[in-house]
Amino acid sequence: MTSPIRFFHQGRTVEVAGVHPTRSVLDWLREDAHCTGTKEGCNEGDCGACTVVVGELAEGVVGGLKLQTINACIQFLPTLHGKALFTVEDLKSGLLNDGGKTRDARRHDKHPVQCLHPVQQAMVDCHGSQCGFCTPGFVMSLWSSYEHHRAAGSVPTRQQLADDLSGNLCRCTGYRPILDAGQRMFDLPPMQLDTQTVVQALTQLQREGGFDYAAVRDGRTDHFHAPKTLDDLAALRERKPQARLLAGSTDIGLWVNKQFRDVGDLIYIGDVAELKTVEARGDTLHIGAGASLEDAWRALAQRAPSLTDVWLRFASPPIRHAGTMGGNVANGSPIGDSPPVLMALDAQIVLRRGTQLRRLPLTDFYVDYMKNELAPGEFVQGLEVPLAALQRQVRAYKISKRFDCDISALCGGFALALDGDVVKEVRLAFGGMAGIVKRAAKAEAALIGQPWTQASVNAAKQALADDFQPLSDMRASAAYRLQVAQNLIQRLWLETRTTDALPADATSVWSVMPHDVLPAAAQAVQGA
């Protein structure tokens, strides 16, 4: 039996039926709800013009809510079921209060006007908008940061604001005045979300069991299934092996928007709490297949801080909030950033079909370009990373044309263990160098048991040409990819050699502009 999509929007519970399961949140906002503040720019989750905030029930976050920015253009509307949707229009709604204070907000002609939210007022004061097309997206990212920091009683650094805004692109104003506004908004009289009203509404929306939605298009009924338990997911997947598994729609959303693909029935894993677990289990770090990229990378970076840069350079905050590491691995893209790092850490992938589990080294999961070892009716349940691997010298290097919010030309994940000055263990995994992500077996063999010297590194770099014959495409030529991959092995040696290793300030600009994100990591993996 199917039900309408029900979610909280603009102070009330909204029910939607009859729209196709792949209708985007952005299209619904602009065409059905007539909330046109949210803009369409790239329609593929890159530019941030469509940034909105989604709220879910969660204890100890922002007044009982977990608030996260997402890209409305690639999120399918049924994924909002049981959640709250906030857009730029909400910043003037009755859901916000200023603690009983009245601010003077009058035009030059003395006619009273509705006062702006501190985020918006700061953008005005700091000249943070010119054409204004990207402004609603920036405002919503800033609003999310504002709510989180107000709830925590903190004020972000300028670099933290830059990280929060790394998924929002501006082509005319420039980022300096927008960052000025991000700092300025905390100096203005406060105005915060009335979380109690939202929490009450979401509590009333919660129901036992999963959510099933269906709609007819072109004479065919397409289904959206959202089970709530792992067992229900396994049974549904076994019963409908041809259905498409959906997590954050950060890839499938583009199939629909850009390739106009027919994805058929969908099985959404985003409501399965058991799949969102990130915790230490014995001698491994378990990452559930439904855990967000943000939570998964945070857990890895907490244990190996050298992974912080690749974490924050992975796509953007809205993408990392919606997408999952399990999905990034299962997708099998040869330029995915998670698999090279996980391979370097000797990760295993946990697969499930019905009640049966099996584990594979991630290095054995990929068969060929976009092909893997998944059997019909099987799905990725999680990833397991040996905690001991995180004690090695771990590095990850992402090479892309744009520093933030860009797809890799290639990505290297490395792990090194030395016995004195001799290489005891080494893992060199690359994405973007072949049709699949894989380890550089011959380069590794050239290093194991050898002194960690320039001569050994030169031998590994030469062997790398036998490991890979990369292709040329729009992101990089084959020659460039091979040369850069060899240079990354050189960089690994420069950073980890036993004498005169390069300090952080010689290899990363972030040594003088720290991200300051790891303290929050302890909260995300508390008890792990």
TrEMBL record:
The keyword Metal-binding applies. It holds the Pfam family Fer2. The keyword Cell inner membrane does not apply. This is Xanthine dehydrogenase small subunit. PANTHER family: XANTHINE DEHYDROGENASE. Signal peptide: none annotated. Its EC number is 1.17.1.4. Residues 217-390 form the FAD-binding PCMH-type domain. It comes from Variovorax ginsengisoli. Keywords: FAD, Flavoprotein, Iron, Metal-binding, Oxidoreductase. Transmembrane segments: none annotated. GO terms for molecular function: xanthine dehydrogenase activity. SMART domains: CO_deh_flav_C (SM01092).
